[in-house]
Write a structure and sequence with these properties.
The protein is built from one helix and nine strands. The strands form two sheets. Strands 1, 2, 4, 7 and 9 form a five-stranded antiparallel β-sheet that branches. The relative contact order is 0.40.
């Protein structure tokens, strides 16, 4: 059985990560249960991405990792498909500089 190719199920959203986290964006899926996301860090620096069921939760999860954190590091140029709760909120922070991150809800890999 083969792996299903990624199929977008909602509009792409974006945020520009900086040394302080910007207002979170919500990636809304147009299908029930759409909980996979294609995430692209188009910048030249690592983004420490915060994800949550609410905007506040995603902001509190966006921290530069010093020892342990719920943050997900996205290396520069990273193009990942990750699974979270449906209709999640996203934001991110960098140690220095800025990076644009694009998020598309969908299904598949």
């Amino acid at each position: 059985m083969g792996t299903q190719a990624f199929t977008p199920t909602g509009n792409t959203v974006m945020f520009t990560a900086n040394t302080s986290a910007p207002t979170p964006v919500q990636a809304v899926s147009s299908t029930l249960g759409g909980n996979q996301y294609r995430i692209l860090n188009s910048g030249t620096v690592t983004v420490f991405m915060g994800v949550g069921n609410t905007a506040a939760a995603s902001t509190s999860n966006a921290t530069v990792i010093t020892s342990t954190s719920s943050t997900i590091p996205l290396l520069a140029g990273t193009d990942e498909i990750l699974t979270f709760n449906a209709n999640a909120y996203f934001t991110g922070i960098t140690a220095a500089s800025t990076a644009v991150v694009y998020i598309t809800p969908g299904d598949g890999s």
